Amino acid sequence: MATIHDVALKAGVSVTTVSRVMNNRGYISETTRSKVYQAMNELNYQPNEIARSLLRKQSNILGLIIPNVSHPFFSQLADRVEYYADMEGYKVLLCNSQMDPSKERDYIEMLKRNRVDGIIMGSHTLEIEEYQNLRSPIVTIDRKIDEEIPCLSSDNYRGGQLAAELLVAKGCRKIAHICGNLDLKMLSNQRTDAFLDVVGRAGVGHLVVQTDMNVFNESLYSELLHTLLESNPDIDGIFATSDILAAYALKECIRAGKRVPEDVRIVGYDDVGAARWLTPELTTIRQPIDELGHQAVRLLHRQIEGEQVSFNNVLSVELVERETT
User: Fold this and answer.
1) What is the pLDDT of residue 92?
2) CB 97 within 8 A of CB 117
3) Which residues form the HTH lacI-type domain (predicted)?
4) Secondary-structure class of domain 156-288 per CATH
5) Residue 152: helix, strand or coil by DSSP?
6) How far apart are CA 97 and CA 143, in angstroms?
7) How does strand 318-320 pair with strand 283-286?
8) CA–CA distance, 93 with 118 (Å, rounded to integer)
9) Dihedral sign, CA of 147, 151, 154, 156?
10) In terms of CATH, what superfamily is 4-47?
């Protein structure tokens, strides 16, 4: 196996020059750079990334912790994070926490052992001190862990407001709002706050249904929606805080013999790809998933480079009206 000394000998330069070429440090003429790369190719030289990371004190690896990669929102988010990380020269270690504190703690320890340059948190189940002790730059998505940890989210309140206002404007008189467990203190709870503000001002009948379960456990959604529609046959509007919940609502409405949108109007949240695959196509609140991924990497990269960043970063949302309303 070729070594850096072999490369230097073949290129006719010093080991220091080869190191500077690999790490892109200092001035190197294009002629010298080309000779080094040619020698590396001819010798099939593979740099020792661990040794290089120790030298640079940087691994060029980011950690991404999300609750469940099978969920369409988080799978699309992970795709965008990886895309923009790659553009900045980083690789991504993907951690699927399943909302399990012990699993999340194990992942954090793994990321520390692998000397990641920073961590993007799309899930958190541990105490604040465990994140503060990481000594690595962190960006959180849609959750506020600490005032001194940068947070990125879309405008959850505006999203809930747009959804509720549309259903009220369409003439709905009893609207069911289906959300995750509000005790989790997520920023997404602002969607519920906005919904209650809108229907309260409009004097529209409503009820809030919390899943009271792991929000990613889809096996229980059908039972939840079936029970809701059976016990409240006069529901004529549904606002669900994810497109997956909205899809199950559509399925159960059809199963119950209710026409959508004639009998029941449905609004989802996120605008994942599946929202356009349904029949009828789903009206939803579009989160800027691409921009969330871009800004998460950008905020982390700026911290790694020692730059100051904003601690509260809120992106705009958009109502996308399709056939379910």
Assistant:
1) 92
2) no
3) 2-56
4) alpha beta
5) strand
6) 15
7) antiparallel
8) 11
9) negative
10) lambda repressor-like DNA-binding domains (1.10.260.40)
